[in-house]
Design goal:
Distance between the termini: 52 Å
Oligomer: single chain
Largest sheet: 7 strands, mixed
CATH superfamily of the largest domain: Chloramphenicol acetyltransferase-like domain
CATH architecture of the largest domain: 2-Layer Sandwich
Number of domains: 3
Low-confidence stretches: 1-8, 86-126, 172-182, 187-193
Mean pLDDT: 79
Strand content: 15-25%
């Protein structure tokens, strides 16, 4: 595919050929149609359930939008165009300003807006509808001009249509009631008159009062689809062990300042990643992918670490080739990825190629979670519960003693097609052993 159009006066803005996550959609145009943009200037954001990717202008010129916000963007799809200004500074063709050809105006025969094309409202205001909005209004036989738009320049968004549908569903069925009443004889109307409502019954009915209906974000919908697919495809089984964090707490206390001098924050998660790498030798199948005819075992151990984005959802940046990194290297990479995730600056590669995932759900106080949904197409996911002091029994000089120790539950949820209980327990046993005897030998 070439990025030059037929008249060589515009260059296409192309969606990346490689996309991580589920179907990408156009999230936000950073520039408006008709704006002048510079080469390599970010002009549009693409969103999946895992990452937001900025796509830049391929040349200097005037921006033309082809896919509106909310539209699906297949790999290699044309998102928009950058029209090169002619020597005389001519404006780009008017019919290309929104990415949709506009029909010639016919003042003598005004027509109602059509839900599946760019159109004009009764007031003459142009309405540019994204493919997602066009499909929604067409499915429900709505008039776009009758819905108030909250997007840029009053543009109608998918959320506006969803809100309008919700409002319609909550209205009483007045039309149906009126039609039935009109067809009845006066005597029948009188006979069918409702009896007074008993004082003991609430007038508003027995359903709960709704405070709001919040449309799902694109990321939330994608996460939901991904999680549903995982539990549908893979039989989940969870094993739980208990780990004493005394050794890594002592090591961290001793070396934290040393790491800080190099600009690196030494977190417990870095130890979890390092211990997970060593545990792979006890059960290599944990670092694998299921196929119908074979099991694909990976040499590289690419460990993803879940990062919460508040109400937006969850993203999983990946530490690639963790087996080649020291504790310092893991902590440094982990810090960079976490900062990028929180500032919405992750690149596509940062969330690609994961072979195993860690969910440190204990940071928000959770002692235990089951099952933690496997990040398909991986074969297992590690869960780390909250760290707390618990009384445990330890043998000292042959005598049992009660001690307060920093403990946490660790769990491994596995795809039972790939792993059995013995392999799962062997992996967890080695993982706990590494944590409790830190630093590991070799």
């Amino acid at each position: 595919m070439t990025d030059l159009n037929a008249n060589s006066q515009a260059r296409d803005i192309i969606a990346p050929l490689e996309q991580e996550g589920t179907q990408a959609v156009v999230g936000n145009w950073l520039k408006k149609p008709g704006d002048f943009v510079s080469k390599d200037e970010p002009v549009v954001e693409l969103e999946t359930d895992k990452v937001v990717v900025e796509v830049s202008a391929p040349a200097d010129g005037i921006l033309q939008v082809v896919l509106e916000e909310g539209a699906q963007a297949e790999p290699g799809a044309v998102l928009g165009r950058v029209a090169r200004e002619s020597a005389g500074g001519a404006e780009p063709p008017k019919e290309m300003e929104s990415g949709f050809a506009q029909k010639p105006e016919k003042p003598e025969q005004p027509t109602a807006p059509e839900p599946v094309t760019g159109t004009a409202s009764a007031s003459g205001r142009e309405m540019r509808l994204s493919p997602a909005v066009r499909r929604l209004v067409a499915e429900h036989d709505l008039e776009p001009a009758e819905i108030e738009g909250t997007g840029k320049d009053g543009r109608l968004t998918r959320a506006d249509v969803v809100q309008a549908l919700s409002a319609m569903e909550q209205e009483p069925e007045r039309a149906a009631t009126g039609a039935r009443a009109a067809s009845e004889a006066p005597e029948a109307k009188q006979a069918a008159a409702p009896s007074p409502t008993p004082a003991s019954l609430p007038e508003s009915g027995g359903g709960p009062e709704v405070s709001a209906q919040v449309p799902h974000s694109r990321m939330r919908r994608s996460i939901a689809e991904h999680m549903q697919r995982s539990v549908t495809e893979a039989p989940h089984v969870t094993a739980v062990f208990e780990a004493d964090f005394s050794a890594i707490i002592a090591h961290r206390k001793k070396h934290k300042a040393e790491f800080a001098d190099q600009g690196v924050n030494l977190t417990f998660t870095a130890y979890f990643v390092a211990a997970a790498v060593r545990a792979m030798s006890a059960a290599p199948e944990v670092n694998s992918r299921w196929h119908e005819d074979y099991l694909e075992l990976f040499k590289d151990i690419n460990i993803g670490v879940g990062a919460a984005l508040g109400q937006k959802g969850l993203i999983v940046p990946v530490i690639h080739k963790a087996q080649d990194l020291s504790l310092l290297g893991i902590a440094n990479r982990l810090q960079a990825l976490t900062e990028a995730a929180r500032s919405n600056a992750l690149k596509g590669r940062d969330v690609q190629g994961g072979t195993f995932t860690i969910s440190n759900h204990g940071v928000s106080g959770s002692l235990f979670a089951s099952p933690i949904i496997i990040n398909q197409p991986q074969s297992a996911i590690l869960g780390i519960g909250a760290l707390e002091k618990r009384v445990v029994v330890r043998e000292v000089d042959g005598i049992d003693s009660f001690q307060a120790r920093p403990m946490a539950y660790v769990s491994l949820t596995i795809d039972h097609r790939v792993l059995d209980g013995s392999q799962t327990n062997a992996w967890l046993s080695r993982f706990v052993e590494v944590l409790q005897t830190w630093p590991p030998e070799g």
